[in-house]
Structure formats: structure tokens, C-alpha cells
Design goal:
The chain contains 9 helices and 11 strands. It is an alpha/beta fold. It binds zinc ion.
Length: 298
């Protein structure tokens, strides 16, 4: 079994190596300070690629040579090009596979490179970690943006975070600029824009304490996720959904299920399962590495 290196690039860089399809157990983080979650958001593209290259060098010094490299990034990725990335805007239009190949060649690493959407990488990582590599699963990642990933990967756009969950014309906080989007309600960035006077943590805490405005919002947050999940079920059938990302801490599964029951009434599609799992950066790293390995095998 070969070795494959996975990279998860968001506001931070996480890197790790897997052997076979065993989930990654040792993830190297950059920056070192775990609370520094968004210092890379303003780093220009060339600088980002340089930082990624340095992390690859760091990881391969520990692991030895690898046979493939997978890079997971937020946004729409097709044929190695990041077509759009509202949450890491400097990536928009970048031919990332080519750029990475050239960068890695500079450190003597000449291997196949795969670039994929971060939520798809998380889905592959979840499948590996939770024993579902041979099953169809869908994953929602609740973070700065809202990601939707599928395993096994199927070609398509799959920007589930931008599906429309409300026709209220005032709902325009989504980073992509579209109205009524799921991410415009649930995304961390969007919540900050909506509640200029409090952080998302305070919104959820105040809702628990009974603050009416916050209670109303927390209901909307859960109803929106139920709507998006329900839409996916009505299009592609029931099955297992995982919820993760750093804001999965706000998710009340009981409330989500309550709204899902209101939205899904046809019996053949009521056998869905919803599960919340903690967000570990090893999920996306593992998934990116697995995707790279499979791409290499094609
Ligand atoms: Zn959007």
C-alpha cells in the first residue's frame, strides 16, 4: 500500500500522511497557535502556495516519500481549477493542480496532485474513519461557510451551502452574494454580519437564556439546515447524513429531527439517519489523501 499526503487549506493549513486507507493520526498544523483560525484568509495566492509547500516539506521529512498529494480547498473545483471560492477569494480562477505541481517539483517531489472541494474531502475522511468507505454518505460542514460533501465523489457542483432555504428578500448575508442561501443564515461569517453586537457563541448562549431575538434565530438556523437536508433527501433519497465543522457545537440534533419530521412526509424517504460528529482536521486531511490515492490509481 502506498503513502499519500493530504492537505487541508482554509484559514489554516493542516497536513498529514496516510498509508493505505487508514485515517491519518498525526496532523501538522500551521500556524502553530490553534486559536489563529483566519490569519491566512488575507494571504495572497503566491504566499499561500509557498506556505503549503513548506508544510509538505515538513510532513514528508517525518513520513518519508509519498506517492500522491491531495489538496482540499473551499469552493468549486473542476479539473484542477478553483472556479470560485467565496471564503478564500484569492483562490478564484487559480489553476491549483498546475501551481502545486510546479511548487512541489521545486522541493523534488514529482507525484500526481489532486485538488478537491474541502467538504468532499471531509466526506471521504468521515467514510474512512467511521467505516463507510463502501457506502453512500452525505456530510454538512458547519464553519465559516457551509459545505456539502458526498462520498463516494460524484462529478457535479454540489454547492449545498448555497441552496435556497428562504424566499425572504432580506436574507442576503451569504458570502457569495446570493439571496436566501443556507450559508447566509448558518455560516459563521454570515452570523457575525447579522449580529454585529454579539459573536455567534453569545447568540446561542443568549438563546439558551431565553433572549427572544436569539431564540428566534436559533430556530431559523435549525429549520434552514433541516430544509437543506430535506431538499437533498427529496432529490437523492434518504440515507445517512453527518454534521461536522467547528460550529457543530451549536447543533441540537433533537431540534433538527423535529423540523425534519415536519418536512419529510413520504414514507419511502423517511429512513434517513442524522449524526453529529466532532470536527477534526484529520477528516479533511485523510479525505484529501484518499482522493489523491484513488486519482492516482485511475
Ligand atoms: Zn451563497
Amino acid at each position: 500500500m502506498g503513502k499519500s499526503l493530504g492537505i487541508f487549506l482554509t484559514g489554516r493549513i493542516a497536513t498529514g500522511v496516510i498509508e493505505g486507507q487508514t485515517p491519518c493520526t498525526s496532523v501538522i498544523q500551521y500556524p502553530d497557535d490553534p486559536d489563529d483560525t483566519d490569519s491566512l484568509l488575507d494571504t495572497p495566492l503566491d504566499g499561500l502556495i509557498e506556505l503549503v509547500r513548506a508544510q509538505v516539506l515538513r510532513a514528508t521529512r517525518e513520513s518519508g516519500p509519498v506517492d500522491a498529494v491531495g489538496l482540499a480547498v473551499p469552493g468549486i473545483v473542476r479539473d484542477g481549477v478553483v472556479e470560485d471560492s467565496p471564503n478564500l477569494i484569492q483562490l478564484k480562477g487559480a489553476r491549483m493542480v498546475d501551481r502545486m505541481r510546479i511548487a512541489l517539483k521545486g522541493i523534488g517531489l514529482v507525484v500526481p496532485v489532486t485538488v478537491l472541494n474541502d467538504a468532499d474531502a471531509v466526506a471521504a475522511g468521515v467514510a474512512a474513519k467511521y467505516g463507510r468507505l463502501d457506502k453512500f454518505i452525505r456530510v454538512w460542514t458547519l464553519g465559516y461557510g457551509i459545505g456539502f460533501g458526498r462520498h463516494p465523489y460524484t462529478e457535479g457542483i454540489w454547492e449545498g451551502g448555497h441552496c435556497v432555504v428562504t424566499l425572504d428578500a432580506g436574507e442576503m448575508y451569504c458570502g457569495c452574494g446570493g439571496r436566501g442561501h443556507l450559508e447566509g443564515i448558518m455560516g459563521h461569517r454570515a452570523m457575525r454580519l447579522r449580529f454585529l453586537d454579539m459573536e455567534p457563541e453569545e447568540v446561542f448562549a443568549n438563546a439558551k437564556a431565553g433572549d427572544e431575538r436569539c431564540v428566534k434565530f436559533v430556530r431559523l438556523w435549525h429549520r434552514s439546515l433541516a430544509a437543506a437536508t430535506s431538499n437533498s433527501i427529496h432529490m437523492e433519497g434518504a440515507g445517512r447524513f453527518y454534521y461536522t465543522g467547528f460550529n457543530v457545537r451549536f447543533l441540537d440534533l433533537k431540534l433538527l429531527k423535529h423540523y425534519l419530521q415536519q418536512m419529510i412526509k413520504m414514507s419511502p424517504i423517511q429512513n434517513y439517519v442524522v449524526e453529529a460528529i466532532p470536527m477534526d482536521e484529520d477528516l479533511a486531511v485523510t479525505g484529501a489523501a484518499i482522493a489523491a490515492m484513488h486519482a492516482e490509481g485511475r
